[in-house]
Every structure is written in structure tokens, then in C-alpha cells.
Amino acid sequence: MKYIISGTNRPGARSLQISELIQKIYSENGEQVEIIDLAVLPYHELNGQQYGGGLHEKWAEAVGKVNQADALIFVVPEYNGSAPGALKYFIDHWKYPESFEHRPVCYVGLGGIFGGLRAVEHLQQVMGYRNAFQYPLRVFLMNIFKTLKDGKLEDAVALQLLKDQVAGFKKFVAGLQSQAIDANSLLARK
Ligand SMILES: Cc1cc2nc3c(=O)[nH]c(=O)nc-3n(C[C@H](O)[C@H](O)[C@H](O)COP(=O)(O)O)c2cc1C
């Protein structure tokens, strides 16, 4: 199972709408994928004692999904020139190497005129440092305030780029799996 991570806990987030749109594109391509929505995780359960273990069940469940994901699709809004703290806080409760190493990941950014470029690139540093397999073709959704209406993306070029990313990422993940060098293949051999 691939998981889309809706990268903020902001209620009413556009990231969740984009995540649902991407989920629909996967479905149209014959693949069911699930969304991990940070907005439903109980952030109030985190008080600094949970790094490395002892997570509340909802958190353990979300991290467990990451740890057995065939691949992760990050939907990342730009907050103050970077990715949201809520997303980094989620990631900081993952396990190394299980959650990260050789896990195939791809990125969709959203924001103003830069379409979440900085947010995605900061996240790429994190995932690169932790040895994820990063799909190079990223999608940046610019001026998201104007282009997203009632869950519909009114930007034909951006929509096509999302479709292209889905098709390409499916092949990328399948290629890694076929050589048994993806995260789950490595974990199965341990
Ligand atoms: C706390 C916060 C900071 C933001 N900072 C930026 C920014 O630095 N650059 C930008 O292009 N947009 C910025 N925005 C606008 C968001 O990218 C835009 O509202 C987007 O819809 C946020 O994603 P969300 O709806 O999933 O929360 C910011 C929004 C919030 C809530």
C-alpha cells in the first residue's frame, strides 16, 4: 500500500483536498492508496517523552503505516518558507532506519508563487539524509488559493503534471521492487 501524507494538521487544509485528488488519480490508474491525515492525529498526546517509543495508539498506527508503506507521497504546503512544523514533528517520531531507509518517496508542494518549492526542498534534505529513494519529478502547485476550488484543481497544466507524476512514480516504485532494493524488500531480508 502506498500512503499519501497530507502534510499539515491545519483544519480545512488544502493539502487534504490535494491528497484526495491524488488518491482519485491513483484510483483511476487502478491502484488504491490511503491518506495519512495529520489533522486527525492527537498532537496534544505528544509532550516530548515519546521520542523513540511509547507513542499513543493513533500515533503508533500512523508510524506503523509509514514503516510498511510500499511508498510515500508527501503533499507539502509551504509555511514560512519551509514545510509545516507538524509534518517535521510527525517525522521526528518515525524510526530509523525502518521508516526511512530506501523507502520510495515523491513530493507535491503547494503554496503561493513558488508552489511550495522551499517546503519540498527542505523536506528533501531530511529524507535524503535518511537515505530514502526520492523520485526526482516533483510537482509544485502555485497560487493554490486561486486554483483550488471545492476540491477541484482549475489549472489544467498542474493537473496533468500530477497525473504524469502518478504514472511515473508507479513505475519508479515497481522498478525498485523488481530489484528488491526498496525499503520493504530490505526489511524482509533482515
Ligand atoms: C502558517 C502559514 C504560513 C504560510 N507561509 C507561507 C509561505 O511562506 N509561502 C507561501 O507561499 N505560502 C505560505 N502560506 C500559505 C499556504 O501555503 C497556503 O495557505 C496553503 O493553502 C497552505 O496549505 P494548507 O491549506 O494545506 O494549510 C502560509 C500559510 C500558513 C497557514
Summarize the structure in words:
With 190 residues, this protein is α/β, with parallel strands linked by helices. It has one domain (2-189): Rossmann fold (3-Layer(aba) Sandwich). Helix content is 42%, strand content 17%. It contains seven helices and eight strands, in the order βαβαβαβαββαββαα. The chain has helices at 14-28, 57-67, 85-91, 117-129, 144-147, 156-178, 183-189; strands spanning 2-6, 34-37, 71-77, 104-110, 133-134, 139-141, 148-149, 152-153. The relative contact order is 0.16. Bound molecules: flavin mononucleotide. Flavin mononucleotide is lined by residues 8, 10, 13-15, 77-81, 110-112, 114, 144.
Average pLDDT: 97
What helical percentage do the residues reach? Answer: 40-55%
Tally of helical segments: 7
- Please report the first level of CATH classification, the CATH class: Alpha Beta
Oligomer: single chain
The poorly predicted ranges are none
Q: How many strands appear in the DSSP assignment?
A: 8
Query: And the CATH topology?
Result: Rossmann fold
CATH H level, superfamily name = Flavodoxin domain
Which structural class matches the secondary elements?
alpha/beta
Summarize the structure.
With 190 residues, this protein is an alpha/beta fold. It has helices at residues 14-28, 57-67, 85-91, 117-129, 144-147, 156-178, 183-189, and strands at 2-6, 34-37, 71-77, 104-110, 133-134, 139-141, 148-149, 152-153. It has seven helices and eight strands.
Key descriptive features of the protein:
190 residues, alpha/beta, Rossmann fold, 7 helices, binds flavin mononucleotide
